[in-house]
Amino acid sequence: MNEFLQQLLNGLALGAIYALIALGYTMVYGVLRFINFAHSDVFMVGAFAAYYISNGLARWLPPESIPGAVIIMLLAMAVCAVLGVVVEKLAYRPLRDRSKLNVLITAIGVSLFLEYSGQLLFGADPKTFRLLPSRNVELGGLVLNSNQLIVFGLTLVLLLALRHIVMKTRIGTAMRAVSFNHQAAALMGINIDSVISFTFALGSALAAAAGILYAMNYPAIEPLMGVMPGLKAFVAAVLGGIGNIPGAAMGGVLLGMVESFVRGSRYSTYADAIAFAILILILLFRPAGLLGKSVVEKV
Amino acid sequence: MSGSVALEVRGLAVRYGVITALQEVSFRIPQGDIVTLIGCNGAGKTTTLRAVSGLLKPSAGSIQFEGSSIAGLPPHELVRRGMAHVPEGRMVFANLSVLENLHMGAYLQRDKAKIREMLEFVYTTFPRLREREKQLAGTLSGGEQQMLAIGRALMSRPRFLMLDEPSLGIAPLLVKTIFEKIVEINRTQGITVLLVEQNANLALEVSRHGYVIETGRVILEGASPVLRQDPQVRAAYLGG
Question: Nearest by CB to B107, which of A176, A180, A190?
Fold first, then answer.
């Protein structure tokens, strides 16, 4: 029983991080109908931004202190929000009216560009990430890491904030309008470009938060660290129903759980294979994802 | 404002790649009037509206809105200048509630009191929308969606309203209501209306002036009562 609860907690923490990344994939898909493959590298930049900011500000802002950690995190999120907006503006916007395939290939190009620029700028060897001291808390036989608690708390706060923005604010409603139909939204007086920029900023800030949370739990950061979590978060977004925001969160948590349980079993070496096999099975029965509606793609 | 021109289009041409959709379309709409463009499916009526509201870039010609050139401006800028376009097929945001749709119509309006005032006007004009306020727009009937599309356009307090086929796919009884509302909006709010319709009979009944478009050009124009008597129009569009 304890073993089960322990894996549940681990899976929830991992899944929360996948969920935060998956939201960016699904929101961008919502407004632009393409997969931003560079999103996983924004996640990586988030971790590095926090690393360099915490080193640079260590004298004034101890990264072990809570205010220090909060400010570092907010700054890193801001850096990634700007990065996301710039990438969209320079790489994707000029291709807006072209075939989706062009943008997709460009996104892969941007992804490689960020990864190898990272190797050039940050170096290919892993760096040790340190933010807030990590402590283990024993709770009725369960071992809870303080970092996991931060993952739960912060993810919950970010999800609620996102929900508020998307469902209750003017810009959030505009995002939903744009994701339904660009032209109809433009006829309302909505500046489509600004809404798309805002979507990239929001998704990228969440990816930065995910990158930092990930690095707090797996503290060796390197420029290719985004590849696997990014891939899994992308799968999580598809699993939840691409374009569907609650779906992405749900898909992320589900994927994290499956992965964690398989890792805790004696088939742990096959963890990724089994996790993906389960996903393929789910998608066979629900091709549009758990919360997605199947829409016939117009050609 | 009588005598001034709301919209003047001269020599408008639009191309989709190598295909010419419009060539040399010219018309003028006096302030406060209802003017209609009639023509068959594919004649270029929708293309004309889309070029005027900025959804399409014209390849030639000039578009003057209230005296200033607007060709090539983005749609959101034209909304700011007082133009509203109810697109073909209504395009209500099916994933948003009726109220959210109406709020999107007032996207550029920051004054909450003015939004409430407009909302009240729209609900008085189309009481059905008030009843369905919380419902997702995708669950409305075709006629209700058309009311929503028009109400949403009114939320921006336009001075100039373009309607693309408001009768399309709607129960005949509702078509009558919707056309009565269009006339009412024009009379009471002083909003200039450009109406595109395949239902030429109805369109010529409510409008003052009409233009007939065929294969991307204006082939005939005149006062609506005159057009209704025109043998050519009767044969082609009014069923003989």
Answer: A190
